[in-house]
Every structure is written in structure tokens, then in C-alpha cells.
Design brief:
172 residues; alpha+beta; Beta-Lactamase; five-stranded antiparallel β-sheet; 6 helices; globular
């Protein structure tokens, strides 16, 4: 079960040469996490292993971004995106994430491998208001229409720039 944490404005940051690494099973349960992950998230290894990766999902993140992530990796493609995570102390940290499907020698999906690094401040200047707009649309639309409302905003932004989400996040 996900802990009940009240978010606050304490920002934790990665160092420029830090990389957060984790591995999950196909359902998103954590199988491995490195020390940098544990430090920023504020959990011990035993508290993370076997837990859903969304244990660190920040409520400021639009659900639509996670749907895009899952849709992408379940097609066997790698995902790139900006993610705001929730620390155990209620603080937060931003990452630029790369999530890749992992396969066994027989080609069967065994899980996902993710490497996250410190995002550029200029990218967060672009992504933070976009995610805020998407989140507001999700809340205003209600549970049944939330995803479609946020997708519409994202698609409008991408159409205006003539790009895909992946190219958008790689270019900002």
C-alpha cells in the first residue's frame, strides 16, 4: 500500500553526475534500486523492494504522462520524460527519466529498467507549466474524462510545435 504523505515545498536535487537506477517486474514492482534512489526517495532498500514504483508518484504529476509511459514501454519502445517524484518526507525531486523494457534470452519481457538523471532547469521551465495545465484539466474534467482532457492539452502543444512527445522532451 502506498504511504499517505503530505507533499511540501522541500526540493531535493540530484548532483550533475548522479544517476538513479531501478529495475521492476512487468507489473512495476521494484526489484532493484540504487543508493541514490533510496537517498532521494527517503526509503531503505527493504521498504522499496517488492513495492509498486508509484510509491514515489507525486500528486503534481498528470496521470496522462504515466499512461504515455506505460503505453510506450508496453509496445517495446523506450520512454523519455520528465517526472516529479515524491520523497518520503513530503519533499520532491525532478528527474529526466529513460525507461526501457528488459527481456530474457528467449525474448520474454521480464520487466523494466530505468535510469534517471538531473534535468536541465530550462527544461523544467517549460515542462512544469505544461504539467500544471494538464493536471488542472484532469481535475476539472473529473475521473472519467480526466485522461482525455489532459491528452487534449498535450496534443495541442505537440501539434503547435509539430513534434512528438519524445522529440519534445529531448529537445527542451
Amino acid at each position: 500500500m502506498k504511504p499517505n504523505i503530505t507533499p511540501n515545498d522541500t526540493e531535493h536535487t540530484l548532483n550533475a553526475d548522479d544517476f538513479i537506477v531501478s529495475k521492476t517486474d512487468p507489473k512495476g514492482r521494484i526489484l532493484y534500486c540504487n543508493r541514490i534512489f533510496m537517498r532521494l526517495a527517503g526509503y531503505k532498500e527493504a521498504e522499496l523492494l517488492g513495492k509498486q514504483h508509484n510509491i514515489i508518484r507525486h500528486p503534481d504529476m498528470p496521470r496522462t504522462v504515466f499512461q504515455l509511459l506505460w503505453d510506450t514501454v508496453q509496445k517495446g519502445e523506450e520512454f523519455f520524460g520528465y517526472i516529479k517524484n515524491l520523497s518520503r518526507d513530503g519533499g520532491f525531486y525532478w528527474v529526466f527519466a529513460n525507461v526501457t523494457p528488459s527481456y530474457d534470452p528467449q525474448g520474454q519481457l521480464v520487466g523494466y529498467y530505468s535510469v534517471r538523471r538531473k534535468p536541465e532547469a530550462k527544461a523544467l521551465d517549460v515542462i512544469t507549466p505544461l504539467y500544471g495545465e494538464m493536471l488542472a484539466a484532469e481535475k476539472a474534467a473529473g475521473p472519467k474524462q480526466a485522461m482525455e482532457a489532459a491528452k487534449k492539452i498535450l496534443h495541442q502543444r505537440l501539434s503547435a510545435t509539430g513534434t512528438t512527445y519524445e522529440h519534445f522532451v529531448l529537445e527542451i
